[in-house]
Amino acid sequence: MSEAPLWSTSAYGQTADTTPMELAELSRHQRQCTALSARLVAVQCGALRLHGLISCRLVTTLVLLAVLAGSGLLLVL
After folding, report:
1. How far apart are CA 65 and CA 50, in angstroms?
2. What is the pLDDT of residue 11?
3. In the chain, where the domains are located
């Protein structure tokens, strides 16, 4: 992943304009970043959905957790 970038950072006295090679490299970089962040976005969306579900049903969630904890204690004892 440590490839040298294919773009230049100076116009060298000429008009500052992008070349087709620079645009292609930028496009490749954006695709790479999007692919790397896709999993993180999926995890974040899942966490937000879970938070929404739990926050709307806080009392029910607490009762369910208490029942599960009690059942676990009964199985251990």
Report:
1. 15
2. 65
3. 20-76
Each residue's pLDDT tens digit, 15-59: 777 788 888 999 999 998 888 888 888 999 999 999 998 888 889
Cα 5 from Cα 46, distance rounded (Å): 34
Q: What is the Cβ-side half-sphere exposure of residue 26, based on CA atoms within 13 angstroms?
A: 8
Quote the pTM value.
0.42
Return all residues near 18 (Cβ < 8 A) that are at least 6 apart.
26
**Contact at 8 Å (CB) between 21 and 8?**
no
Please answer whether residues 7 and 27 qualify as being in contact, where contact means their C-beta atoms are separated by less than 8 angstroms.
no
Look up residue 25 and give its two tokens. 């490299």
Q: What does the chain come to in residues?
A: 77
User: Which residue is listed with tokens 């695709």?
Assistant: 31
N- to C-terminal Cα separation, the chain? 53
